[in-house]
Amino acid sequence: MTHEEIKRHRVESTLREIIPEALGSLDDPLIQNVVVTDVVCSRGRSNARVFLDLGVYTKEERKEIIQKLYKLSGYIQTHCKQTEGWFKAPIMTFEFDSQPEYISKMEGLFKQMREAMGDSDEK
Questions:
Q1: I want to staple 15 with a disulfide (CB 3.0 to 4.6 A). Which of 39, 42, 64, 111 is the partner?
Q2: Cβ neighbours of residue 93 closer than 8 Å, sequence gap 6 or more
C-alpha cells in the first residue's frame, strides 16, 4: 500500500466518524437518523462518495433525504474542516448503499444452489 493510499484510507475513516456527528447535530429527525455505511474518496481526496444505509425508508423519503443532504453538504464540509483542522474537506456526494440488498440476493441464490445440488445427490 502506498503512502497516498494510506492517507486516503485515513481520510475515509475520519469522515465515517465525523459525518454522523454532523448529521446528529441537526434539528431534522429524518436526517439525524441516517446511518453512514461507507465513505470512498477519490485518489486526490478532493471528492468523497458517502454511502447511506437504506433502512426502512420509502422511495419518497430517500429522495427527500438525498435532496436535504445536498443542501447541507456545505455545512457538513465546514463541520469536517473545523473538527479536524483541515484546510479543505472533500466535496461530498450522497447515495444509498444497495450492497446489502445484493449480498442478501446472492446468499439466497447460493442457498438455492446448495439445495438444488443436495436434491440431485439424493436422487
A1: 39
A2: 47, 48, 49, 50
